[in-house]
Amino acid sequence: MKKIVFVEDDLGILEVARFIFEKAGYSVSLYGSAENLLAQLNHEPDIFILDKQLPDMDGLELCRRLKANPRTSAIPVLMLSANPQIKTLASNAGADAVMEKPFEIKELLMLVADLTARVKQPL
């Protein structure tokens, strides 16, 4: 079973994400902040899904940290944001993909399936 780590400060979105991804056959770990993720991450997921606007750290900075860490650098990062410049910002932060809010659930599931199907490079 593919594992997703989803970081979002809106609890409503987290619960919807859990429902959607679990129904699609994924295991989902939810975090309400970047610091919670960094302090509690004890496994390597198949993908990180990060909101840009987080309460304690910008999602782009979290992406940079994940990509700089040898343990997590090969794991795809999908950034979510309503910011119209997110594609450029996320690319500069090292994200593998971007979805602008609002998005279609079907498109999100297809993108996550594509990103998690990629073979991870050995550390």
UniProtKB/TrEMBL annotation:
SMART domains on file: REC
Domain of life: Bacteria
Keywords tagged on the record: Phosphoprotein
Key word Phosphoprotein present: yes
PROSITE patterns in the record: RESPONSE_REGULATORY
SUPFAM superfamilies given in the database record: CheY-like
PANTHER family hit by this protein: RESPONSE REGULATORY DOMAIN-CONTAINING PROTEIN (PTHR44591:SF3), STRESS RESPONSE REGULATOR PROTEIN 1 (PTHR44591)
Name of the protein this chain belongs to: Response regulator transcription factor
Species of the source: Niabella yanshanensis
